[in-house]
Design brief:
Number of domains of chain B: 1
Distance between the termini of chain A: 34 Å
Number of helices of chain B: 8
Strand content of chain B: under 5%
Order of helices and strands of chain B: HHHHHHHH
Number of domains of chain A: 2
Number of helices of chain A: 11
Order of helices and strands of chain A: HHHHHHHHHHH
Largest interface: A-B, 19 and 16 residues
Helix content of chain B: over 70%
Largest sheet of chain B: none
Distance between the termini of chain B: 36 Å
Radius of gyration of chain A: 17 Å
Number of strands of chain B: 0
Number of strands of chain A: 0
Oligomer: heterodimer
Chain lengths: 165, 109
C-alpha cells in the first residue's frame, strides 16, 4: 500500500518516458481517462501497481472534466481502501505525522460527497454518517449543493461531537 | 512437413507480393493462435518481422491480435497499446488491463 502515500505528480512519470517502459507508461498515463471508462476497479489496480505517484493527480485533476467517471472512480477507490483511509483520517487527530496523508484523503472524501450530492442525495446522507468523514468541509459542500438530507446528518453529527467534548 | 514448416511457408507466402495483389488473407485462414505461436518462436529474423508487418498492414481487415504481436516483436509497445484502445475486440476489460500489466512487467525484466 506504499503507493497510496505518494504525492501525485504526473510530470514525474512523463519525464521518465525515454526508456521503453517509460514510453509505454507515458502512453498509458495519457489514456488513463479512457481506461477508467472501461473499468474503474481495474484502473485503480493498475495505477496502484504501476503509477502510484499519479493516483492523486488522476483523482483530483485529470478526472475533473468527467464527473460521472470521477464519482465511480472515487467510490471504488474509497471502498477498496476503506480500512486504510479510515485509519489514517482517524489517527491524524492524535498522530501528527499522519496529518499530510490524512489531508489528502480528506480531500478525496469531500470531493466524493460533492459529486454524490449531484448524483444521489440519499446515498450521500448515508455516507456522511460515517464518523471518519470530516464534518465541516462536508457541510460546506452539501450546503453549496443544497443537499438538505446530508446537511441534516452532518449537523446532527456536529452537535453530538460538541456534546461529547 | 512439420507443422511449423507449414506455418512458415504460409507466412512466407503472405510476406510475398502475392498478398497485396490478391488482397486475401492467408493469415486469417491459418488461425490467430497458430500464427502468434509461430511468430513468437524466434524463427523469424527482425527483417522478416518488419516485412510481415508491412504485409499484414495491407490486409483489408488485419487481425488485431497478430498486429499486436508484430508491434511487440518490433518493440512498438505504444502502438500496440493504441491499437488495444481503438479495437473493439481488444478494448475488452480483461484483455487490455492484463496486456498492460504483462507488457510493463516484461519491459522491466
Amino acid at each position: 500500500m506504499t503507493d497510496l502515500t505518494s504525492i501525485g505528480d504526473a510530470a514525474e512519470i512523463i519525464n521518465r518516458g525515454t526508456t521503453p517502459v517509460g514510453k509505454l507508461k507515458v502512453a498509458v498515463c495519457r489514456q488513463m481517462k479512457e481506461l477508467a471508462k472501461i473499468s474503474c476497479p481495474k484502473t485503480i489496480e493498475l495505477v496502484n501497481k504501476w503509477f502510484g505517484a499519479y493516483q492523486s493527480n488522476l483523482i483530483m485533476n485529470d478526472l475533473n472534466e468527467f464527473p460521472e467517471i470521477q464519482v465511480k472512480y472515487l467510490r471504488d477507490f474509497i471502498e477498496k481502501n476503506e480500512v486504510q483511509l479510515k485509519n489514517v483520517v482517524m489517527e491524524a487527530e492524535y498522530v501528527y505525522e499522519r496529518k499530510p496523508l490524512a489531508d489528502k484523503y480528506e480531500k478525496y472524501l469531500v470531493r466524493y460527497i460533492d459529486l454524490l450530492s449531484d448524483e444521489n442525495k440519499e446515498e450521500s446522507a448515508r455516507v456522511v454518517d460515517q464518523e471518519w468523514y470530516p464534518i465541516q468541509p462536508c457541510l460546506d459542500v452539501v450546503r453549496a449543493k443544497k443537499n438538505r438530507l446530508a446537511e441534516a446528518v452532518l449537523v446532527r453529527r456536529d452537535a453530538e461531537y460538541l456534546k461529547a467534548i | 512437413m512439420k507443422e511449423t514448416d507449414r506455418i512458415v511457408s504460409k507466412i512466407n507466402a503472405v510476406m510475398s507480393e502475392e498478398l497485396s495483389q490478391s488482397g486475401t488473407s492467408d493469415l486469417e485462414q491459418l488461425g490467430e493462435d497458430t500464427i502468434m505461436r509461430a511468430l513468437q518462436s524466434n524463427f523469424f529474423s527482425n527483417k522478416d518481422i518488419v516485412r510481415l508487418y508491412e504485409a499484414v498492414k495491407l490486409l483489408e481487415k488485419p487481425v488485431p491480435g497478430i498486429l499486436i504481436t508484430l508491434y511487440e516483436l518490433q518493440g512498438q509497445y505504444e502502438e500496440a497499446f493504441k491499437l488495444h484502445l481503438s479495437s473493439a475486440e481488444l478494448r475488452d476489460e480483461k484483455r487490455i488491463f492484463s496486456w498492460i500489466d504483462k507488457s510493463l512487467g516484461q519491459l522491466l525484466k
